Amino acid sequence: MFKYIGLIFIIITCFGAGWYYSLRLKFRCEFLNSFKDFLSTLETNMKYNSAEIFSLVKKSAPENIKTVFERDSGGGFQNYWSLCVENIPLHFALKKDDYNLLYEFGRLLGTTDIEGQINHINLYKELLENNINNSYTELKQKSKLSKTLGLFLGITIALLLF
After folding, report:
1. Is 161 among the domain residues?
2. Per-residue pLDDT tens digits for 107-151
């Protein structure tokens, strides 16, 4: 009796691992879309608001990524931005390209006049679009596969132990 319960537990655990990987792919897509929305809001706030860059960034952040931008800044804006990017939760499953894009965006933001910053934001929206398309392609290809592999791995282990 306990043997069967253990086997079912192994199958469910392996399927859960595949499901978790699938969710991480989905969270990456959602984060990148939220960041694109953030860029659009930041652009609008820069055009019509004369506040400093720190408050504009905090004000423009969407709710689901707002906690990323609620860090204290120890120095200038670039230090603040680097700290925010470093503290992005791991469950968003961002890739190295995503992190590099985020770092580069913050490194140059706030260094020019408003028109230059708006052009900078528009450039990074276009660059981000490529990452968003790649994340959706990866989600389509790997989401179902990871769940299926998790299930079959669990069944295989259960059959080997039976």
Report:
1. no
2. 888 777 888 888 888 999 999 999 999 999 999 999 899 999 999
